Amino acid sequence: MPKLTIEGHGTADVQTGTRLVLAIRDSGVEIGHRCGGFGKCTTCRVECLDGEPNRMTEAEREKLDAAELEGIRLACQLTVDRDMSVRALMTVGDQPWEDPGPQPAETIEPEPVWLDR
Ligand code: FES
Q1: Domain ranges in the chain?
Q2: Among 41, 45, 71, 117, which residue has the fewest nearby CB atoms (within 10 Å)?
Q3: Distance in Å, CA 72 to ligand 1 centroid
Q4: Is the model's pTM score more than 0.70?
């Protein structure tokens, strides 16, 4: 089972294939997912400190390019399939939100089209 380390919050075992945004949330970090996990809002952004996946969804690539964001990944567009260490960059605790956003589905949405990073 892969280990997920969240900076400032410790390390947990995560079922292989768990959506990263849900794994972070389940670890007790109220990471943003203001679009409900559809790759549209970028509030689930993380910095990958170690174990960054080599592939990315087309939706993530398009959103990061459109928003001119570099050096981050969208946790709703990733699954935990290896040991990873991340920093959650937008959380309820540091944003003017009352909640993190609508519940993301268990699987990546939209249906992933995988690209090399
Ligand atoms: S981009 Fe909105 S939750 Fe990931």
Answers
A1: 3-95+108-116
A2: 71
A3: 12
A4: yes
State the Cα–Cα distance between residues 78 and 60, nearest whole angstrom. 9
Q: What is the pLDDT of residues 24-74, one digit of tens each?
A: 999 999 999 999 999 999 999 999 999 999 999 999 999 999 999 999 999
Ligand 1 center–CA 88 separation, angstroms: 12
Residue 76 alpha carbon, nearest atom of ligand 1: 4
> Which H or E run includes 65?
helix 58-66
Residues with Cβ within 8 Å of 85's Cβ and at least 6 positions away in sequence, in order, are: 4, 5, 6, 7, 48, 49, 50, 51
CATH code that applies to domain 3-95+108-116: 3.10.20.30
Smallest CA separation from ligand 1 atom 1, residue: 39
The answer to whether residues 39 and 107 touch, using CB atoms and an 8 Å cutoff, is no
